[in-house]
Amino acid sequence: MTRLQETQVSDLVELEQACTAMYHDIGFDAAEVPARTWNDIAHLPRHHNVFVAEADHEVAGYLAWRDESPGVAYLEELSVHPRFQRFGVGTRLLQAFEEDALRCNLHDVVLRTFEKATWAQVFYAHHGFSPLGDQASRKVLGWRDERSGARPLTRPGEVLMWKSLRAQ
C-alpha cells in the first residue's frame, strides 16, 4: 500500500478502463461512467488523499478520498482491477482510508454508488455502510444539507451511503 506515485499513473489508467468496462457491461454508457484519464489521475492528489494497492509489484487497485465540510470524509473512488477482485484488495484499501480519516479526526464517511452496481453496494454494506437517511450522524446530515440546497444531491440511479468510524 502506497500513496499515489507518478510511476503508477499509467497502470491506473488501464485499471480505470477495466473497471469502467464492468459498468458499461451492465448498461451504463461512457458519458455516465467515464474512465479517468492520465491527467485526471495524476491530478487527484491535489484535492484527495490517494492510496494505491499493489500485488506482486502490479497495481491492483486504488482509493481516493477528501475531507468535506462540515468534517466528513468523502470517498470519491474505490476501484480494484477485475483480475484482483475478491482477494481482499478493496478491503485493505478501505482499511487504509479509514485509518487515514481517523488520523485526520474525521469520524463519518460518505460515498456515492450506483443502484445497478449491486456488487459495490454489497461490498460497502459488508463493511458497515448503509443508505444515507435521517438516521445518519449530525455531521453527515449537515453535509447532506450543505450540498443539497434546492437541487437533488444524487443523479437518478445513484445511492448515497454512509458509515460512522466512531465504534472502531
Topology:
Layout lengths: L1 E2 L5 H17 L12 H6 L5 E7 L2 E11 L3 E9 L8 H15 L4 E7 L3 H9 L3 E2 L6 H11 L9 E7 L4
Parallel strand pairs: 4-5
Antiparallel strand pairs: 1-2, 2-3, 3-4, 5-7, 6-7
Q: Mean of the pLDDT scores?
A: 94
Give the CATH topology. Aminopeptidase
> Which structural class matches the secondary elements?
alpha+beta
The CA-CA distance between the termini, in Å, is: 21 Å
Radius of gyration: 16 Å
Proportion in helices: 25-40%
What is the 3D form?
Answer: globular
Q: Strand count, sense and closure of the main sheet?
A: 7 strands, mixed
Number of separate helices = 5
| Count of individual beta strands | 7
Order of helices and strands: EHHEEEHEHEHE
CATH class: Alpha Beta
**CATH superfamily annotation:** Gcn5-related N-acetyltransferase (GNAT)
Strand content: 25-35%
Protein name: GNAT family N-acetyltransferase
GO molecular function, one term: acyltransferase activity, transferring groups other than amino-acyl groups
InterPro entries: Acyl_CoA_acyltransferase, Bact_Acetyltransf, GNAT_dom
Pfam families: Acetyltransf_1 (PF00583)
